[in-house]
Design a protein that fits this description.
Structural class: mainly beta
Number of helices: 0
Largest sheet: 4 strands, mixed
Distance between the termini: 34 Å
Strand order of the largest sheet: 1-2-4-3
Radius of gyration: 15 Å
């Protein structure tokens, strides 16, 4: 999914309804009216509900010390 602000996509379960959903991870949530039409995350993909989850900046972590 090549949309501005999107850092990843996964599958999950809606915490309220328990239904299967597509989860779109974004750096931060932005109101729909402030996004270009081409960057709006759809509410459904092929009939499956989509949920947007803000997770902040994604970066690679340093190596962990031995023994962890």
């Amino acid at each position: 999914m090549k949309l501005a602000n999107v850092t990843g996509v996964g599958i999950g379960r809606d915490e309220h309804s328990g239904t299967d959903v597509i989860v779109v991870f974004v750096t931060r949530k932005v109101p729909r009216d402030r996004l270009p039409a081409d960057d709006v995350v759809p509410q459904q993909l092929e009939g499956v509900p989509v949920r947007v989850l803000a997770i902040g900046d994604v970066r690679a972590q340093d190596e962990t010390p031995d023994g962890l």
